[in-house]
Amino acid sequence: MKNTSAVMDSSDIQRTSIAVIGGGLVGSLNACFLAKRNFQVDVYESREDIRMAEFARGRSINLALSYRGRQALKAIGLEDQIVSQGIPMRARMIHSLSGKKSAIPYGTKSQYILSISRENLNKDLLTAVEKYPNAKVHFGHQLLKCRPETGVITLLGLHPRQMNVPWLGVESELRLPVYTTATRDLSRVFDLHHSSQQHRILNPLSKARDQTQVLMDTSQFILFFRPDKVPKDIACDLILGCDGAYSTVRTHLVKKPRFDYSQQYIPHGYMELTIPPQNGDFAMEPNYLHIWPRDTFMMIALPNMNKSFTCTLFMPFEEFEKLLTSRDVLDFFQKYFPDSLHLIGKEALAQDFFRLPAQPMISVKCSSFHFNSHCVLMGDAAHALVPFFGQGMNAGFEDCLVFDELMDKFNNDFSMCLPEFSKFRIPDDHAISDLSMYNYIEMRSHVNSRWFIFQKNIERCLHTLMPSTFIPLYTMVTFSRIRYHEAMLRWQWQKKVINTALFFFGTLVALSTTYLLTGPTFRSSLGCLRRSWNLVTYFQNIGRISL
User: Of these four, 31, 79, 139, 341, which has the most CB atoms within 10 Å of its CB?
Assistant: First the structure.
């Protein structure tokens, strides 16, 4: 960990200011790295403070923390704290349709990944940011406009209030808005006329500017309050776009010349379910990533600290759409995941399956991660990944670490650091995007193949014999900092070597077996032919003599 001071010198009047857009995992980690360098760091997050929220909103897919992410956390002194909150997973546990279970190790006995709660990790990182006197997190601030050529951002401030709502019969806290639907129980959208005298319900979806939009969650009796505020412009030396796969910062960069961008929604969605503890303990073996591979779809389960498992069902949207009733769902699970049905519980499954619709997954690629010396993208804003290699967070955290290393190399010179960051990271992030797509096929289908298991065993054997020459792909990606694109090239070369060797070995075995099985017969047949030919020759000679 670097010794850059995080303490703000009171004599410093002018300090380089950095605006981090997005207070998620990558944004808050980046803020820690930059605050350590004594920059003035302001994090702008559109949501409320998740540490104060009564329930979590947004994505909750468990995270798999591996070496790259741990190295980034280590650099800011948080590795031990975060690791202590995770559960080691040393292998995949494959659940066959018959109920048979088999383990496929990730690496050596000492190698494992960690199942981590996204929500708790985000909370810890936000708390870490606020420990720096030169860093501040501004919750409820939505980015409206970004001018990367000048380093100016336009923000809309959002502020929570508390109100007494007599018609609900409870005193409800009015919170910040949720910009994506978080619950299917969200039944109506009202406008609430706000004055110091009274609060009364007006027409649904009214858009009058003097009214306040409220979202009502009927199951929680929580209202989300958004007052209208005048947008404000803020100038900074660097804009750091860490605002996720649907990045507003990136939207403005796309409008710039020679900035190419592509996105791909895969045809599969995901849905989360829960396996609760049984008798106060884990219902399954806790130190595994459990997988139910079913060729075109799959379910996985990761352990939680409260001894539950978070299950995620990945499946084509058209398959989700076929499951219309509780009976459809129960029959589907009985057919494809029979051993999980009693673990989840029939009643809980029938209820939870329809709580939220299946969510989409998107992959994003950009031709550049920066614009001039005033703006740079990191994390999902630069390279959103599908979750099948467990590298989305780890790749985002490595972005932060690489940027920090480049800042050392170029002495905090943004004009040198930003172009080099794009040049360095783009091939790596494109590679892990492609590998993540491939790994979905491996997880849902290949792991059922005996040939796949055989190849994995060969890879492990070769790695044991030649640890620096043959390294399995998963080991390179998950347990090292070998650059992603180098890992992919090396993996492709290793596959060719192994397949070629197996081909020649198989050919040799086939020829040897054929010879052993048919050799005596072949020699006997050849002897018969020779004797027959000799007999023909003999009679021919007799004929000549008699003539």
Answer: 31
In a 10 Å sphere around its CB, with 0-12 CB exposed, 13-18 middle and 19+ buried, how is residue 123 labelled?
A: middle
Nearest to 288 by CA among 433, 485, 87: 87
CA distance 407 to 416: 9
Q: Helix or strand or coil: residue 219?
A: coil
pTM for this model (two decimals): 0.80
Residues in the chain: 547
Q: For residues 453 and 433, what is the distance between their CA atoms, to the nearest angstrom?
A: 24
Whether the per-residue pLDDT at 171 is higher than 70: the answer is: no
- Are 93 and 286 contacting, i.e. CB atoms less than 8 angstroms apart? no
Query: pLDDT class for 524, splitting at 50, 70, 90?
Result: low
The closest alpha carbon to 116, from 70, 62, 184, belongs to 62
Q: Is 124 exposed, middle or buried (0-12, 13-18, 19+ CB in 10 A)?
A: middle
Strand partners, 141: 157
Cross-strand pairs, 233 = 154
Q: How is residue 461 written in tokens?
A: 């054997």
Q: Which two tokens stand for residue 449?
A: 């193949």
Rg (CA), the chain: 31
Domain range summary for the chain, segments of one domain joined by +: 17-154+234-439, 159-226, 449-523
> Which class in CATH covers the domain with range 17-154+234-439?
alpha beta
H or E, element range at 404: helix 392-409
Predicted confidence band at 454 (pLDDT cuts at 50, 70, 90)?
Answer: confident
Provide the token pair at 314: 């990945």
CB neighbourhood size of 73 (10 A):
24
- Closest alpha carbon to 261 in 405, 367, 344, 119: 367
Specify the 3-state DSSP secondary structure of 531.
Answer: helix
